[in-house]
């Protein structure tokens, strides 16, 4: 038999890969099968993927057949008596140990398992086969190959398909150093769960599990953190390129299907390799692409498991040019895509379901946009940017909008709208309303509910004035927003969303309080829909569209700042008592009990971001992010004082204008505004307690006044032993009022305050701090 030299074999494989399209590779991967010739009895086959330590102590492993010369899967089974394997993960920081303990009851993961499916695009196969071939005791096992290959093939194909876009991209790129490693583990104690090492991710190490609660599916993130080498300061490569100058031409058919051409300028920041990848909604499909005017192959597939782990519904779009792009100059990218991102809610009410990813993009890029929409002339499109052109063309209408400054991303809304406009202090506000309410709100009202109007228009002018008032107030506090115009549009549901120059607010905000469904008519809901929602979304022009979170752990900053900005406006309009009442409602929500008996707030630190939405506490993400986050901003305000707090927010907008901000950067800047003599001038203890930890203490105060001293004790209950915080104590005499910040912990702490006169009042300021009174 003719044998090729290693060099000739390598050249042959590269030639085969070069002549193979991405679609061909995907098809081969989807038909992947296990290789009976590569099944081994293994003993002490151990390997490490940064912080993942895997010990295949005794069992059998079978590898997949090569695809384009590369083996990308393996199955391990320890089915004989004494067979065993072990996985070890030790999170490096306290918050991740807390997260792991929340789901597994242990701060470290040390799980024995009998089965595992491995999917990889790195050098795992070569690494393991080298070990096997170097150990004479590890021999091939034809008998087990027969038993394993058939039943496990479908499992391997299913999991391979769940990472198909990434595998195709990595096979084409050929760079095994940035390939991923995934393992589906059949744990003896924890059941089936997932682990991942992805050197291209922001957090390279991941472990989690698909779970269920009340007939809903959740993907619980047990732990996620930077790998050992990334923590050690090794470069992760950074962004490969930046994107700017987006020009999007789209056509919306009468059936609401969108066809679009997105063009943008890509500027390399390092050598790009043989592929380029972008993200786009799975509701959109890329049909063609070109780079610098030359057609290139475009590949897009849904990758279910990969999306679950990263908690998004986007697809990876891979462009494959004939040769790597010149890294020394910009390139023009053009992608054609189409899909159903617009949905019909009934009665001529529409909404955009993929609001932020209806066109291809990457992460956080500030760019200019030139947007053109062609659509049925009886409808109206509202989008990011100033209106440049709006005219009819037969049965169609063409609208063009353009931004004059870089923005974070672009959004649009479509509807049979009526509108009002308002110009105030140089800012133009357009408020749009559907001509009818969606079908879900057109049901017959109960006798106790006021008749629901069929036309949302009556509240248009009031909404316009409210938004104008919010812009004026926030501009005075934080400085000018990025754009001089803002469009307000409706969306079915109970939420809102803010884009640069465009916000969505719930159609319930277009109803008077007495006309809303009974479930939306308590004090908290009335405040939300009538006073907070439009102000909150308006605030996102500053927080989220101008000052941008650095990562998912920092998104709480943006939502908390937006909500607290709305509370500041409420305080101006209705006084501090209205704010105190709302904060009291938030405290009640945070103290609500889960099925486990724990409080909802204890589901996890606010810095966990989207990970808070888990099977353990489905409502925790929203409640902790918005409501505890608002409390954190309120407490920070009390620590800094009103004047310094507002000066801090204004400087935050100035320093991080069109830039990202992390929680650490936020704390460092806030610390510069700590008042003299502050017991925690760096605010480290404050952030460790309230941002990176959990707990709402019940604080007990005792005191006595003897001679010229106020003495007393403080003790916390209902929190962990290591929970400590400084709490505000109000002390009044006949002539003065002072606030003292005193340390409180689970062990009794004492204090002594010299006073010139007998106090008339000594009290904990429960409205200023997230705490309760012991029962």
Quick recap:
The protein is built from 16 helices and 36 strands.
Per-chain topology:
Blueprint: H1 6-18, H2 22-30, E1 34-49, E2 52-64, E3 73-77, E4 84-89, H3 94-104, E5 109-120, H4 124-134, H5 142-161, H6 164-173, E6 181-187, E7 191-197, E8 205-213, E9 216-225, H7 228-231, E10 241-252, E11 258-268, E12 276-281, E13 284-291, E14 294-301, H8 304-310, E15 314-320, E16 331-339, E17 342-346, E18 349-352, E19 369-376, E20 380-383, E21 386-393, E22 396-402, E23 412-415, E24 417-424, E25 427-434, H9 460-478, E26 485-491, E27 497-499, E28 502-506, H10 523-539, E29 547-549, H11 555-574, H12 576-590, H13 620-640, H14 642-655, E30 659-661, H15 663-671, H16 684-690, E31 698-706, E32 709-717, E33 725-732, E34 737-744, E35 749-754, E36 761-764
Parallel strand pairs: 10-19, 25-26, 26-28, 29-30
Antiparallel strand pairs: 1-2, 2-3, 2-4, 3-5, 4-5, 5-6, 6-7, 7-8, 8-9, 10-11, 11-16, 12-15, 13-14, 13-16, 14-15, 17-18, 19-22, 20-23, 21-22, 24-25, 27-28, 31-32, 32-35, 33-34, 33-36
Helix pairs in contact: 2-6, 9-10, 10-11, 11-12, 11-13, 12-13, 13-14
